[in-house]
Fold this protein.
Amino acid sequence: MKPKCLLISLLILFPFFSKSQTNFKPGYIITINGQTIQGFINEKEWDTNPAVINFKSALSGAEVKNYTPNDISFFEITNSVTYQRYSGFISTDETNISRLSRGRDSSKKQDVIFLKLQQKGPNVSLYSYNDAIKMRYFIADNKAGKTFELLFKQYFIPDMGPITHVENEFIPQLYDLATKYNPSSVELKQEIEQASYKTPVLRKISRMINDMAVDNTHYETPSSFDFFIGAGVSASKFKFGGELPFRNATDSKTTYGPTFSAGVNFYTNAKIGRAVFRAELMYWTSSNETMADLYYGQPDKPKIKYHFDQRNITAYPQFIYYLYNTNAVKFYGGIGITVSFAKYTQVISSTSASASNNNLLSFDKNWLGFPLKAGLIINKAFEVNASYAIPATINSGDKTSGNYSIKQSSFKAGINYHFSIN
């Protein structure tokens, strides 16, 4: 099987590999009846609040139990995240500008959900709830035993086209709590008056209502990053089309050149490490050689040998997702886009003469590529990877010598070493 076919096959099979992956971490649950059970919870990169969690009483145990907010009132993953059961009303109006209602929408529904803890103190606790509709924030008056949504509304004003109206109902809600628990703080009142409906802002206000100078609790796993350097080999092939300045060119053969790379990985969740944004910078080379007729209809003239070398500096942003993810071995698939800045050297030679830097063909100085990538990381340090870039045009045509195009496809394989700088 050709390397590019194998790579594409692996990427197609990735979803099936990922189904068996789990990430059980120490934690505990509290049942509706108030019983605390220590065990292990399958931590995921929850973009929305989970509706169900997977729980094991022992890490090596085979039995996995599923719990919903109807079964438990609380769960915590040690040194990571905490969720609290909530039963009550939640708003269902849209706040996304592309889906806003025409006129005020006060729709809501009764539901039982898990709220994510964002800040906690003796007076209040701040929570968040994100679903397919929007992000919402809730606050609990700990001493009064009440939890309610901090309301934020946005909608188009009827008969006024694209003009929107914003209702920051959460500001007087927070002001009432500030008056109750920290009435002497002028700074707190100023923070509330200028508040936006965002996690860092509301977290700070919650801390100040709790009269806490600092809060060193980690309410969620922060993102992190590491670096890598690497080397490998690139196999390239060129395809010519259109009206070339020479005829009867021989087929392009696959040529090989070195690659060198360096970059940084940004992990959206350091403890889970599944979703990664990678910024990579590469230097790589390729070449092409063909025999062709330069003199049309003159069989007495010798054929030419046309050769060019290509040297590239490539910026390669990419998204990587680890579908098999353990401390010892990680297996990922990735997509991205490459922006290559190329320099070319062209040589034409025959039995009688040779000319360097003869610009017989016109190349683009920069061009885009769209590679698919797969890789294996061992012990969080050594990475083996392969990528295939679909054919990309590196020449848009030169009207002075005829309309032609040159497409380049490439397969790369390499080894990277990962490291951190403390």
Summary: The two ends are 43 Å apart (CA to CA). Residues 70 and 193 are 37 Å apart (CA to CA).
